[in-house]
Amino acid sequence: MSNILIVDDELKIREIIKKYAEFEGHTVTEASGGLQAVNICREREFDIIILDIMMPDLDGFSVCREIRKNSSTPVIMLSARGEEYDRIHGFEVGVDDYVVKPFSPKELMMRIAAIIKRSSKSDSDMVKIGGLCIDFTGRMVTIDGKNINMTPKEYDLLFYLVKNRGIALTREKLISNVWGYDFYGDDRTLDTHIKLLRKNLGEYSSNIVTLRGVGYRFEASANQT
Amino acid sequence: MSNILIVDDELKIREIIKKYAEFEGHTVTEASGGLQAVNICREREFDIIILDIMMPDLDGFSVCREIRKNSSTPVIMLSARGEEYDRIHGFEVGVDDYVVKPFSPKELMMRIAAIIKRSSKSDSDMVKIGGLCIDFTGRMVTIDGKNINMTPKEYDLLFYLVKNRGIALTREKLISNVWGYDFYGDDRTLDTHIKLLRKNLGEYSSNIVTLRGVGYRFEASANQT
DNA sequence: CCCAATGTGAATTTAGTGTGAAAACTCGAT
DNA sequence: ATCGAGTTTTCACACTAAATTCACATTGGG
């Protein structure tokens, strides 16, 4: 269902959360410390991050602040009882929710479900792949909330690729659907636009997979380079 | 953005809400008890009131009932876990929403935003984007309170753009909706009116985004130049 | 290693939009 | 009727972003 990152120095806590989360159908990645968490987040996107406050190397707030620099992934903080005051620090780093330890795993799962539900907007026609978001009604593309400037052809090409994500598309099919069946032009035109599109997609450029001798396929899932 | 009254006997809860709310741009007033809240409400109006149920002097329901005697300000109740029964009670006194403690600050903020949006929508037919305000009933446009003189066509065009803000509008769609389906005129007519409209919108001119090869889109959010 | 397929940068061409000025139209006041 | 201020439309042209081409580099499979 969702990709969850659990960050806690206590193995037992991680195991409990992992067990429950996997039971709910989520995919879990673990980090035993703050620094490790920051490094993992630089490499890949998660749908939700569960973050302990008290950790020996780097505390939860610092981790959250670091993550927020290039991602808006929801964060749930785990605080030990009595650390009430810490809640106040959360606002400036953009914490989404708190759960006080010792917590009920079921409650945590419910909060995860609530956050996932609210972050997946269903009011307009759009596709999200990690931090990449294609809004069809607005003809708009954003990466981690930042607007990406797309030329008409780039957008049309991306649109067709994404609409048929996970499916192998021949060059002929792409050309006739994006340019029109009557397009007669250079062979390199498609490559060039794929190139431009990849450049624009930045970290998501590798989601456009080249199928040698065939064409291209848009990878449906977020990439974990 | 809005004036919020927070009523809770716990200082920490008030502090958390205040921090988050001020971060969102709201102005916050605090009351540490029910009686104080009632007194403050007699003196001034708020856009929204966040009200704890359990308070030593006067409980949330009584406060709400008292406030409702001469105001229809939206109220969000904070209830402790397990106080399910109170929900039913709440509807009788005119509560707008509930948040169960311990709550997610972000969720509370979203509910505040939802209520503000809802109440501002119903009482007057207007759209605000930053300092730009389009009053449909009055057919009036203001920027930072200053009246903007609009020619009929300019207004009609802006009206259609704003009504469909966030949506990519083709030139054809714009033409047929603003001029009429049977308009047969120069290609440059639309551009010219977009030009005039942009000139009139001043700092908000960039909210009309050109979608090359397609048309235009009105950006829903305020721009930060 | 070879070769066909794909990637790339730069140059060129094309197409779409912005703009100013002038013409044409509207409509109320004289 | 006529005027005239304000408004709308047209048009020629400027501008520039975008599409395409092409020569050459790179890659990956047999």
Explain what the structure shows.
2 copies of one chain form a homodimer. With 225 residues, chain A is α/β, with parallel strands linked by helices. Chain A folds into 2 domains: 118 residues, Response regulator (Rossmann fold), CATH 3.40.50.2300; 99 residues, Winged helix-like DNA-binding domain superfamily/Winged helix DNA-binding domain (Arc Repressor Mutant, subunit A), CATH 1.10.10. Helix content of chain A is 38%, strand content 23%. The first copy, chain A, has a 5-stranded parallel beta sheet, sandwiched between helices. Chain A has a 4-stranded antiparallel beta sheet with strand order 6-7-8-9, covered by helices on one side. Chain A has a 3-stranded antiparallel beta sheet with strand order 10-12-11. In chain A, strand 8 and strand 9 form a beta hairpin. In chain A, helix 1 packs across helix 5 and helix 2 runs parallel beside helix 3. Chain A is elongated and about 70 Å long. The model of chain A has no long low-confidence stretch (mean pLDDT 85). Chains A and B meet through helix 4, strand 5 and helix 5 of A and helix 1 and helix 5 of B. Chain A binds a DNA duplex (30 and 30 nucleotides) through helix 6 and helix 8.
Distance between the termini of chain A: 20 Å
Based on the coordinates given, report the CATH architecture of the largest domain in chain A.
Answer: 3-Layer(aba) Sandwich
- Structural class, judged by helices and strands of chain A? alpha/beta
Greatest interface = A-B, 26 and 20 residues
Number of helices of chain A: 8
**H and E order of chain A:** EHEHEHEHEHEEEEHEHHEE
Low-confidence stretches of chain A: none
What's the overall geometry of chain A?
Answer: elongated
CATH topology of the largest domain in chain A: Rossmann fold
Tally of DSSP β-strands of chain A = 12
Question: Measured on Cα atoms, how large is the radius of gyration of chain A?
Answer: 21 Å
The first-level CATH class of the largest domain in chain A is given as: Alpha Beta
At the fourth level of CATH, the homologous superfamily of the largest domain in chain A is Response regulator
Strand order of the largest sheet of chain A: 2-1-3-4-5
Helix content percent band of chain A: 25-40%
β-strand amount of chain A = 15-25%
Tell me about the largest β-sheet of chain A.
Answer: 5 strands, parallel
How would you name the oligomeric state of the polypeptide chains in this document?
A: homodimer
Q: Please indicate the count of domains of chain A.
A: 2
Mean pLDDT of chain A: 85
